[in-house]
Amino acid sequence: MMYNESVSGRVFWRPGHPRRWSRPGLAALIFMFSAVWGLAQISAGGTPPSFSVKTLEQDIPTVVMPDVDVAKLLVEDELERKMGLPFRFGFPFDVDLGLDNAGTWERLPDGSMLWRLRIVCPGAYSINLIYDEYRVPEGARLFLYDEDRTQVWGAFTDRNHKAGGRFATSPVKGDACILEYVEPPTVHEPGRIRIGRVIHGYRDVFYGRADKGFGGSGSCNNNVACPEGDPWALQIRSAAMIITGGGSRLCSGSLLNNVRGDQTPYFLTANHCYEAWGGQDVTTWVFWFNYQSATCANPATEPPADSMTGSILRAANAESDFCLVELSSAIPTSYSVFYNGWSNQNVAATSAVGIHHPSGDIKKISFDDDPLTSTAYLSETVVPSANHWRVGQWEDGTTEGGSSGSPIFDQNHRVVGQLHGGYASCTSLTSDWYGKFSTSWNYGSTAATRLRDWLDPDNTGAETLDGLEQTPAPNLVVTDQTVTDICSGKSGGDGIIEAGEHVTLAVTVANSGTLDATGVTGTIGCSDPYVTLNQSATTFPDITAGHSAANHPPDFAFSLALDTPCGHAFDVVLTLADEAAGVWDHTFSFVVGDLFDVYMLDEDFETWPPAGWQVINNGGDCIWNSNASIGRSNNTPGSGNCAAADSDKCGSGTSMDTDLLSPVFSLADLPAAPRLEFDYDFNYYSSIFDDYGAVDITVNNGATWTNLVTYADADATGHDVIDLSPWLGESQVQLRFHYEGAYDWWFQVDNVQVLYSGCEQDICAAWPGDLNEDSQVNAVDASLLANYLAGNDVPGFTAPLSRADLNEDTFINATDLALLLLALVS
């Protein structure tokens, strides 16, 4: 299908209501970004550069996917359900969008190149992406986030490379997602990112609204945290949901132990989850572990999940409908998974349990109290040598679409098969069929069609195997940090990191794992060209489980170049390790200089009439008013009261033609580009009455007006950001919010702000005594000065000679050396 490219000027939403001249402290500039919705896809963390760099273009090139016929898709889904196909939540569009043919490139203040692209799927609940090519150089970072920036995936780096060069990212909520790729100037070769598929989520599976997905399975299902699930607590940790079918389908599955017990991440699911469309590339599968309720009751909001991307196909066959993959990354110890035991004996279980994700919902558990029977698929005829186990009827719980591939356990808590299909549901007490583990074990003549080569690689002949817990381990997380900026050798700075400064970083680390962490080391890394690492490594005391500790001296330290731009953002990545080879990363994000916003206009309409504003009636029956005065709620993204031109409240047979005029303000002598921001809600009624809302600007006392944006023909709500650079330098500027309607609905406006973003910094002077220009004054500098005074050749003496004149008497002599040594001692 074809897709269209357009440009949208309404991309950035800065939530909240910022204060005038707000100056964030240093602690506010250093953080590890975490999304509101708790999916943890393996990534390096950090913050997209556009969140802090205010000089970037506000218009991001936008690719708009075609509309989808949801009603038609839902009819198809019902037919597919009866055919036993995996649960579909999204419609895939094949595309070819890459760094070379889509989006836009901009240069950041530090010389890095930033690429951004916005993808829109009109009406979608979510968007997820499949990458035909993902290969980025060391130091490069890819982020994805939703339109309102409450959900950020990434940073994805070179550590996310997969076999075959493909990749996938978890769904982003809403009908628009933004990709942001930053590449430092020091890379040896450019990155290669190419999106091959965009999946329009037409079912609200992931974020819990009106469709199947979270909270959407049948009411007879049991959350795994219910008391009946307690005896199965270990096996529950093995099960996961999979995004498969080229990114548009959902299945279930579970981890398996192998005879070596080496925790190779083998994952069992159904062959039809893989093969139904000619075989999908499993390197783009996404696995969601621990997607479950913490209590027996269904939670009111979406619970968190732990996500991984990518796997390698190991074996599959249609006879018993099994598919075995190996996850392409080690499973983080923080996921606390379990590797299931199994039985390859063709012996019917006396009772059975299934753990699964019905209809893409959170993890559920089902119970069959009767013996399994051996039949062919969809048959009820008992044949001992048949290839499936039949559940005659679930006594507690059920399965649904999305449960395909999930394990069935015997009375010994061992896997004996995986779900192929059936007719069971909360309203249909009928059968399900599971492909036999015993058939899968030795089917065919090669390792590609059977399990035994992978789960018993040494051919021990094992017929049963118990499960295995993920090896207990430490789990180190940064819980606190102290950042000190030092300028020109002084004891401390002003709490604002600025060009030329020396910065120290002291870190407190907690061990939330189950074993003590010993031999703990920490190393910081930064690829930013303005940053020099002075003290990149340090050690920690041993950290017992459940306790925390600060790093030993010396603290981590780095310096900023004198030409570091104000407002420049950069990340410092801390890698922690212990002697048991556990490795954990934490990203610190910094912004250089004192950032602030300056407001020429800032009105929240909490009181009416607002000071300095004018309401004009151009001949209608009603005018702009406070929403509170007319009894209408504030439907904008703002809170409290708002300004409202409400044709509905005006009444039948009436009309409105009204203006809301701002005070006059000046855009003259501003040091940066100004912008207009406001929250709005336009509720459209009918083209019969031609209702519309508009925002205009004038610089000549209303003699002429220029339209900035118009809302008509469709409902619209959100937060607009409009560049006012064309009017920079004008001293008599005024805004007009205009509405016309005839017994239509309304136009609401809130939090109208005209502002510019600034940055101030005091560049740190050259460091007296820093003769080798490493941003430190230490014994090396004293040695260089002593050699210089002795007449020796000192190639390391790179700084201007004036830095060696510590007493500023225009002579470089023994007095300066004595002062330098004294400073070092003190």
What is the quaternary state of this protein?
single chain
How far apart lie the N and C ends?
A: 72 Å
Helix content: under 10%
Radius of gyration: 32 Å
Beta strand count: 52
Judging from the principal axes of the Cα atoms, what is the shape? flat
Tally of helical segments: 10
Mind summarizing the main beta sheet? 10 strands, mixed
Mean pLDDT rating: 86
Strand coverage percent: 35-45%
Unreliable spans are 1-38, 208-213
Structural class: mainly beta
Relevant terms:
826 residues, mainly beta, ten-stranded mixed beta sheet, nine-stranded mixed beta sheet, 8% helix, flat, disordered N terminus
Descriptive overview:
The strands form 9 sheets. Strands 14, 23, 24, 25, 26, 27, 28, 29, 30 and 31 form a 10-stranded mixed beta sheet that branches. Strands 2, 4, 15, 16, 17, 18, 19, 20 and 21 form a 9-stranded mixed beta sheet that branches. Strands 1, 3, 6, 7, 9, 10 and 12 form a 7-stranded mixed beta sheet that branches. The radius of gyration is 32 Å and the shape is flat. The N and C termini lie far apart (about 70 Å). It contains 10 helices and 52 strands. Helix 9 runs antiparallel to helix 10. It is mostly beta strands and about 850 residues long.
